[in-house]
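Supplementary Note 3. Input sequence used for the single-chain structure prediction.
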Amino acid sequence: MNTHARATAVFFMAICVYPAVGFSTRAQTASASQKETVVTDLATERATGTFEVKVTPQTSEDSSQDATLGRMSLDKQFHGDLQGASKGQMLTAGTAVKGSAGYVAIERVRGVLKGHSGTFILQHSGTMTRGALQLSITVVPDSGTDQLVGITGTMNIIIADGKHSYDFSYTLPQTK
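The predicted structure, written as discrete structure tokens, is reproduced below.
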């Protein structure tokens, strides 16, 4: 792996080891689904737990081998209020300035969230400006399936003592 590819991988690992990445919770609404489900309440829930992540660098499809760009696969195992796994893809960009980089990622989570089974998709957007990190992880609208249809929310990643954990603020429509 060349120097820029290593720097990109280091950026991702910095995101994974940065202690307490903030997130913003936004009020969100839902409408009745196509199955004529009647939404009665959208109480915000909170799920917490730990996860392990395996990040695997992928080969570039760019024949110029631009060392500032990278692509990686994600493989996670969730424990706690969310029991399950996810697979995803991440694109990274490093710069010549130490501590400045960016990444985007999409991952499909499959599991059981406090007794509700199904899948949903998380969208990541991370930017590091000379070491200052901004990270947003949001549930893709209308990506929930099975008992997770209508899920909305944001996730916070916390790294402490080399261990990963999550704090997931979400809403799920209650139906009659």
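DSSP finds one helix and ten strands in the chain. The helical segments are 3-17.
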